[in-house]
Write a sequence for this structure.
């Protein structure tokens, strides 16, 4: 059996705000349930450019809260993570966070943009327990220029597990202290002639189920079109894929998914389980934020099929 996500009828759920730091685009939100509400850390862009007119906008992370998981009830008036003049590793801001709760702590892995390297994207992380105060961002796996990364929301044999993407494939690495990484392994690769032939990576941090770790992921084809997929990872060995759907679960079909700041993009880095559904938050064309859902029972049936 193949499964598909269902778009929320009121999409997009978030568009550009009024503040100068987010009045151009909002998209790509990490998500977590805290105190019964869904907290979203989202990518925001305004008029400020990285290297002058015509260059990519400076990116920042904003905070929004949904009380029901569907509709935005609150948006914080200022960024919770901003660019920095004093930190050259965060010169042009930060983007695309994934949130993983381990114990009582939320670990936020995101990309900071710099002048260094080929594309200038390097991993950072911060932690919080309440989404009110955050630890200072720190570099994560500084030996690799990369993005599209997040932590498993549990430790395996007392080790952190990081999903990451040395281009263009999905890798996994392990660490006891978030400083030294070992057992790096490629677990999923691009495939010529498919919707993920160009590059791929995780979506949100995996979600725990009775059958293993549920992973929503994204791929891009050689026509620069994105789509979302689903796979199931072994609970004790998340480097092992035990279930995989070849067909995507969401493709670019609506106007807001086909046309925007960058056309033909659906990209998720946030998902939660709430009230019998998986809620998948996805950025559309790097311009707005939308929501798609699927019943938990349908996913569990797929896991067992």
């Amino acid at each position: 059996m193949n499964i598909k996500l269902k778009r929320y009828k009121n999409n997009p759920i978030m568009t550009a705000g009024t503040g100068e730091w987010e009045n151009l685009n909002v998209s790509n939100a990490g998500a977590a349930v805290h105190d019964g509400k869904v907290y979203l850390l989202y990518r925001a862009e305004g008029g400020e450019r990285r290297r002058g007119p015509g260059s990519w906008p400076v990116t920042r992370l904003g905070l929004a809260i949904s009380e029901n998981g569907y509709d935005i009830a609150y948006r914080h008036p200022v960024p919770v993570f901003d660019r920095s003049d004093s930190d050259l590793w965060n010169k042009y801001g930060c983007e695309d966070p994934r949130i993983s709760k381990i114990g009582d702590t939320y670990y936020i892995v995101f990309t900071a943009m710099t002048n260094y390297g080929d594309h200038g994207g390097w991993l950072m992380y911060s932690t919080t327990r309440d989404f009110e105060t955050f630890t200072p961002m720190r570099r994560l796996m500084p030996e690799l220029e990369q993005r599209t990364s997040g932590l498993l929301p549990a430790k395996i044999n007392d080790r952190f597990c990081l999903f990451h993407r040395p281009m263009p494939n999905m890798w996994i690495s392990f660490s006891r202290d978030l400083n030294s990484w070992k057992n790096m392994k490629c677990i999923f690769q691009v495939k010529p002639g498919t919707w993920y032939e160009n590059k791929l990576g995780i979506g949100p941090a995996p979600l725990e189920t009775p059958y293993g770790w549920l992973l929503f992921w994204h791929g891009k084809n050689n026509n620069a079109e994105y789509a979302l997929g689903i796979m199931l990872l072994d609970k004790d060995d998340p480097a092992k894929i035990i279930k995989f759907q070849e067909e995507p679960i969401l493709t670019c079909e609506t106007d807001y998914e086909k046309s925007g700041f960058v056309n033909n993009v659906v990209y998720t880095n946030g998902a939660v389980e709430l009230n019998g559904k998986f809620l998948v938050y996805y950025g559309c064309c790097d311009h707005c934020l939308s929501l798609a859902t699927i019943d938990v029972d349908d996913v569990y049936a797929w896991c067992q099929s």
